[in-house]
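note to self — DONT lose this again. spent like an hour looking for the file last time. sequence + predicted structure for the chain T wanted, 128 res
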Amino acid sequence: MEVVNALGRRKRAIARVFVSEGTGKITINKRDLAEYFPSTILQYVVKQPLNKLGVAEKYDIKVNLCGGGFTGQSQALRLAIARALVKMNAEDKAALRAEGFMTRDPRSVERKKPGQPKARRRFQFSKR
């Protein structure tokens, strides 16, 4: 039984994925998918690459997730799953790329500048 691993990132979230043949069970940090992501929208985001290829019930997925918020984590996990599926079967890459699952979202938080309270926010200007 072959285990394929992949990495996905989004903002500050990092997802390490281990995919093996199985029954479709997704375990995140030793918890079930529905328990970790109670929102059905986030569960849908995580399963998008699997549903696109029609292999949702074919693989067991173990995940180590850390950092970021729940939206960033779900999108990092989606990227990691897509990368793992491509490692298993290279012909799937075109279908996943067409849906945008293979692209790493480069946006992250802009750094805070000195002399300002936030990245772009300035202190209130006083003329007198």
